[in-house]
Specification:
about 475 residues, mainly beta, five-stranded antiparallel sheet, 38 strands
Length: about 475
């Protein structure tokens, strides 16, 4: 018993000496990291270079032991880069504003040092400018000319940001600015059921047009849209499966295309519009060889026909299939758009039809006003053919034939004049401002033959080239100005 007690006392004494003498414990200095040189706020542009070069001071730490993580988001859950200097092209998936933080990790001891978060506001050079859809071989090519990026304004092959496949040849380009976001849409020529919409500010894929339809039982067969018409006000329209489908709301989930406009008619892709905001759709009825009307005035659920002529000829008579239909695109609240239609009658003579719809009621029937019927051919020293392009704007019709563009006055008795002779054949004309139009030409370049011009239509300097961009796409067939 005495031996056990002595052993316990010896053990306690030894333990006590170890506690009081800490000379055998190893102390490790893991060093310190100080992060500075990061501003509180930054402005970045989507798909443009963005760089932050921080100041990192080390105390007792080797540079080789460090790892870097540039994270973004309110919780820093996603990583932008693992380099010491953040030097990237700002991606398009982050949004309009985010927080960016640098985390430095001592890989040897697993300690982390975190910078103050910087607020980054992200803009886009895609907010304003020209969207161009061109033919390039068997495919289409999507380009954008930015209004805000003056150093490198042309963005090529934007479809590559959406798909790793070539873009199918498109038959129509449209822009929807009526929703909370702006969308750019393309109808493929041979696969219209694959009509897609792109988010307009970043050119990223959004959804298929078919997702905006609620009741596919109303479609006679597979969904195959021919054209989309989006006016400045009033219902939107999709011409598909020979019928016109209206949609009046702005929320995709709550208000979708569902029921076609009723009537005995068949439409495809020929249409124009009337009214200052373009809210009245006039289309060509292939079944009855006549123009039909649907829109804000008179309601969008029933087709109206022109049965009472009040102009140069009777619209209820059979009309040959138009070569082109469009609008005069008046840019003044005090002037109404006219629907324009170029036709070739049985005798081979070309005519321009100008159709106007007024918002007046006569015996509970919407009043229709028409003026049309004078031939283009007799006034123009050009030959109209399948390569001739047309554009209506500000009460004028612009006609591009080969290299020549002529201007026809739709208001003052059809006076026609030469506007400009372009360096190369004209492939597309589009309205722009009250004093200018956009023109695309085919230079013959084997890779990118599409050249783009802004041409003055101001009486003070008609035909003057105001802007020029070369090699912006393939053979440009469709152009739309994006303003939001």
């Amino acid at each position: 018993m005495k031996n056990i007690i002595l052993l316990l006392i010896s053990a306690l004494a030894l333990l006590s000496s170890c506690i009081e003498d800490d000379s055998s414990i190893m102390h490790v200095d893991i060093g310190d990291v100080t992060i500075s040189g990061i501003a509180k706020e930054y402005f970045a542009v989507v798909r443009e270079p963005f760089k932050i070069d921080p100041i990192i001071e080390l105390e007792g730490i080797a540079e080789s032991d460090l790892k870097y993580y540039w994270v973004y988001g309110s919780n820093g859950e996603d990583t932008l880069s693992t380099e010491r200097v953040l030097d990237i092209l700002m991606p398009d998936y982050i949004g309009s504003k985010t927080y960016i933080t640098l985390i430095v990790e001592n890989a040897r001891y697993k300690t982390k040092y975190e910078s103050e978060s910087a607020v980054v506001t992200i803009g886009s050079h895609f907010e304003k400018g020209w969207v161009l859809l061109s033919d390039k071989g068997e495919n289409s090519y999507l380009s954008f000319i930015s209004e805000s990026n003056t150093e490198s304004p042309v963005y090529h092959d934007l479809y590559a940001n959406i798909s790793d496949q070539p873009m199918k040849k498109g038959k129509q380009l449209f822009i929807d600015t009526r929703s909370s976001d702006t969308y750019i849409g393309v109808i493929p020529e041979d696969a219209p059921e694959e009509t897609f919409l792109i988010e307009g500010d970043y050119f990223t894929y959004s959804h298929l047009l078919s997702e905006e339809f609620r009741n596919f039982d109303n479609l006679d067969g597979e969904f195959k849209p021919n054209a989309v018409f989006i006016p400045g006000y009033g219902p939107r329209f999709v011409m598909t499966n020979k019928k016109i489908y209206p949609r009046s709301g702005s929320t995709y989930d709550l208000d979708k295309y569902s029921v076609p406009t009723y009537g005995d008619y068949e439409v495809r892709d020929l249409f124009g519009s009337t009214d200052y905001l373009g809210r009245n759709l006039v289309a060509y009825d292939y079944k009855n060889k006549q123009y039909v009307f649907v829109g804000d005035y008179g309601g969008s659920r029933n087709i109206s026909t022109f049965s009472s002529p009040d102009g140069d000829f009777d619209l209820s008579n059979p009309i040959e299939e138009p070569l082109w239909m469009g609008s005069s695109s008046m840019l003044s609240y005090y002037l109404d758009n006219e629907c324009l239609s170029v036709v070739k009658d049985a005798s081979g003579q070309y005519k321009l039809h100008q159709i106007m719809v007024e918002n007046t009621r006569v015996n509970d029937v919407w009043g229709l006003y028409l003026r049309s019927g004078y031939p283009i051919e007799s006034d123009l020293p050009v030959t109209i053919n399948e390569n001739t392009v047309f554009c209506g704007t500000n009460g004028f019709l612009y006609i591009g034939n080969d290299k020549d563009i002529k201007e026809r006055d739709l208001v003052r008795n059809g006076i026609t004049r030469d506007l400009v002779t372009m360096p190369h054949p004209v492939t597309c004309i589009a309205p722009f401002t009250s004093t200018s139009i956009a023109v695309a030409t085919n230079s013959g370049d084997p890779e990118l033959p599409g050249d783009f011009y802004i041409i003055s239509i101001d009486p003070a300097n008609p035909g003057e080239i105001l802007q020029k961009y070369e090699r912006v796409g393939g053979i440009i067939k469709h152009m739309k100005y994006k303003n939001l």
